[in-house]
Amino acid sequence: MRIALGSDHAGYDLKALVADHLSDLGHDVDDLGAADATTSVDYPDFGAAVGRAVVSGSADLGVAICGTGIGISIAANKVPGVRAALVHDVTTATLAKQHNDANVLCLGARVTGTVTALGALDAFLAASAESRHAARLHKIAVLDGSSTANNPSED
Ligand code: RB5
User: Fold this and answer.
1) Taking 50 as the threshold, does the pLDDT of residue 116 lie above it?
2) Is the pTM of this model over 0.85?
3) CATH code, domain with 49
4) H-helix or E-strand containing 134?
5) pLDDT (average), residues 57-76
C-alpha cells in the first residue's frame, strides 16, 4: 500500500520509526513532514496534508502523529471523507478498522510507547472493515458532505 505520513515536531521521532517500519513491511511511504523534531510547527497543517492525500487517492491510508494524537486527529477529521482515529493500543487500532473503517491512524508520541504504537499500527494494517457497519459510515459521510447519496440499506 501507499501510506501517507505526517506529524508535527512532537511526533517526528515516532514518524521516523513508523516510516522505517512500514518500509520494512514493503509499503510505499509518502512522508509529508514535519522535517525535524526541533522546529516548532503546527499540527493542523500536517493532519490536513495526510487527510487530503488519502481523500485524493494519492495514498491508500494515512498515519498522523502529534504529541497526544488529539490535535492532529481533530485536524485530519476536518477534511471531508477522512475517518481519522486516535488509537492507544492494539485493541483500539483493530476496532478503528473493523468498526469505523478508519483511513487515517493517529498516534500520540508523548503518551503511547514506541512498541505499543508500532503494535497498534500492525494491528490496524492486519484488520479488515466489517460490512455490518456500512450504514453508520454512510451517515458520517453525509455529515461531512463527502456523500449525498441515499443509502439503500437505511429505511
Ligand atoms: C505540540 O506542543 C502539541 O500541542 C501537539 O503535538 C499535540 O499534542 C496537540 O494536540
Assistant:
1) yes
2) yes
3) 3.40.1400.10
4) helix 134-143
5) 98
Q: How far is CA 73 from CA 34, 69, 79, 111, in A?
A: 16, 6, 10, 14
Collapsing DSSP states into helix, strand and coil, what is residue 15?
Answer: helix
| 12 falls within a domain | yes
Query: Which is the closest atom of ligand 1 to the Cα of 108?
Result: 8
What total number of domains does the chain contain? 1
Cα dihedral sign, 26-28-32-35: positive
In a domain, 31, yes or no: yes
**Domain with 29 in it:** 2-130
139 domain residue, yes or no: no
**b (16+ CB within 10 A) / e for 87-125:** bbebeebbbbbbbbbbbbbbbbbeebeeebbbebbebbb
Neighbouring-strand partners of residue 62: 4, 104
Mutate to test the pocket of ligand 1, among 9, 72, 74 (most ligand atoms within 8 A of CB): 72
| Residue whose CB lies within 8 A of the most ligand 1 atoms, among 66, 72, 78, for a mutation test | 66
